[in-house]
Amino acid sequence: MVEWYLFLPQVRVAVADISERALQAEASGFDGIAFIDHLEAPGQPGENIWEAMGIATWVAARTRRLRVGHLVLCDAFRHPAVLAKQAVTLSAASEGRFDLGLGSGSWPAEFTKFKVGQQDPVARVEQLGHHLAAIKRYWSGEQQPTPTDPIPLVLGGSGRRMMKLVAEHADWWNLQANHLDRLPRLVDAAGSARISVQQMVGFVRTGDDPATVREVSTRRFGHLGVGLVCGDADELTSHFVGLTTQGVERIYVWFADFAAPASLAEFGETVIKNFPHAVR
Known about the structure:
The protein is of the alpha/beta class. The protein has a single domain (3-271), classed as Luciferase-like domain (TIM Barrel). Helix content is 42%, strand content 18%. Strands 1, 2, 3, 4, 5, 6, 7, 8, 9 and 10 form a 10-stranded parallel sheet that branches. Strand 2, helix 2 and strand 3 (67-70) form a beta-alpha-beta unit. Helix 1 packs across helix 2 (52-62) and helix 1 runs parallel beside helix 10. It is globular, with a radius of gyration of 18 Å. Residues 14-188 form the Luciferase-like domain.
């Protein structure tokens, strides 16, 4: 079965609105929710952005079934011993509903501004590899307590060095929206990691004008190229079935209308609940 996650960047939105969307996602049949991790909003330094682990903890406390995680936490922002401890704590507090998503960092400008991390992308990936090994050691007994429930490791990225880390460490590999056209070429490099994708969606709800939805979605997110798909429930279902035939087992749905609660509700009723179970 396909797993459905809501991808919800915590930028320019109140904490109360994030909670509302998380609760609606849970009620609508989503399996999980994922946030971003930046010290400033990418390309929007004047906008509010909530801290990633804090907002995930708050949502985990407000929900009962929804898994929580990130696409993805930036390795440079937290010492691996601290992150390992945070992950175990949040997993225990949520009764095993936390996924640890990690990446090497995608916005070097904030590394310079806040004096964290390294500019060299190769060095960042190498450091991530060392930190992943350390986190696994901490979880295996170098720190106490150890995880009561398995904490899935989700690695995001598509470069050659990152794919080696995916094959070595990841339970899940996530391919970002603007690289979806590379999926067929990268699948084998993921090794035994299960495959997830991030997908921007312009959802044409009942009564919407399709042309307007496509125009607004493209104006906002057309830069994602193949990472943006627009359509009604039937069109989106057909698109997602196509992804599952390529081995995708989890879809992080990123709504072009910023996850309006009405969109989450209708998507749950018309796509998630009606999605074919055996599609591969």
